[in-house]
Amino acid sequence: MNRSREICLLPAAESVFLKAMNWETAAVPPALGAGEVHVWRAHLGGAAAGGDPPDETALTGEELKRASGYPAGEPRRRFLTSRARLRSLLSGYLGAAPREVRLAYGEQGKPSLREPAADLTFNLSHSGDLLLLAFGRGRELGIDVERTGRDVSWERVARRFFERREQEALRSLPAAERRAAFFRGWTRKEAFVKATGRGVTQGLRTFAVSLDPEAAALTWIQDGDPADWGMADVDAGPGHAAAVCAAGRGWSLRCFEPAPGR
Ligand SMILES: CC(C)(COP(=O)(O)OP(=O)(O)OC[C@H]1O[C@@H](n2cnc3c(N)ncnc32)[C@H](O)[C@@H]1OP(=O)(O)O)[C@@H](O)C(=O)NCCC(=O)NCCS
Fold first, then answer.
1. 131, 99, 142, 136: which is closest to 119 by C-alpha?
2. pTM over the 0.85 mark
3. C-alpha to C-alpha distance for 122 and 113, rounded to whole angstroms
4. Nearest by Cα to 20 from 151, 200, 199, 187
5. Mutational pocket test of ligand 1: of 124, 129, 140, 201, the residue with most ligand atoms within 8 Å of the beta carbon
6. What is the domain extent for residue 175?
């Protein structure tokens, strides 16, 4: 039997087949079309890993204050680096100075653009030294990355948070494939709740995603239509699972890495 069909929760014809495999190098953000989603990958490694220290002058007082709440050393430096990268990319897409970019925060903490007025949407996720950022035009989006080798009781998390269809799909797989399928499902679920901005308050059992490696898709939403959302896996590199979810179908995905030294 074709396993893709077996574990896909939608008939193949209805599922979205999108997977980002190629990373283009770019010095500055290229034009972002209305039908596109851009994902950027950056490393948060410090000077020891060959990276520059974060440009703190680009950050707002509020961000610097927030940074001081992180333990000194790696956690603080990673937050600063991630914010500096976000501001630099937002500024590139908007054609505004990084400090002129003002952010707002939703009820559950989702950051969005407050100023300058523009239809640019974005989201970000970090895991260890890896940062992924997603950008779109006028469409809500969410992105999630996880390290798949980390010490986590994934079977317990799946029992607690996976929806019935997802649990069945996981059980139907050979034991050796289940860990990867869990992280695939988990990042797809997180990408969706980050796209809606509700985070875990969304209720992780109020919707279901496919665990099929060939077809990232929402397959069921309690109070909505999965066809309103598109989803794609992102090839974040060995030892990582990542997915991006954005409102609407039919958008295309391009993935970028900063040019060396940027
Ligand atoms: C924020 C949340 C949606 C995702 O958190 P996370 O996976 O721990 O962290 P990520 O790195 O993917 O995302 C954090 C970023 O998302 C953004 N964010 C915060 N709240 C958000 C929300 N409600 N919706 C969308 N994005 C949000 C922020 O930019 C944040 O980065 P910053 O703090 O540096 O600005 C969180 O509510 C959540 O779902 N936590 C669950 C974590 C968990 O149980 N993990 C177990 C893994 S097996």
1. 136
2. yes
3. 8
4. 187
5. 124
6. 3-258
Cβ proximity of 170 and 162 under 8 Å: yes
Instruction: In whole angstroms, give the CA distance from residue 182 to residue 188.
Output: 10
Identify residue 73 by its one-letter amino acid code: G
Task: Among 51-60, 177-186, 225-234, name the one with the lowest average pLDDT.
Answer: 51-60
Measure 199 CA to ligand 1 centroid, in angstroms. 7
41 forms bridges with which residues in the sheet? 132
CA of 1 to the centre of ligand 1 (A): 37
Question: With a 6 A CB cut-off, is 125 part of the ligand 1 pocket?
Answer: yes
Structure-token match 């559950």, residue found: 108
Could you tell me which residue, 46 or 106, shows the higher pLDDT?
Answer: 106
Q: Give the count of domains, the chain.
A: 1
CATH classification of the domain holding 214: 3.90.470.20
Pocket probe for ligand 1: among 74, 125, 141, 170, the residue whose CB has the most ligand atoms within 8 Å is 125
3-state SS, residue 180: helix
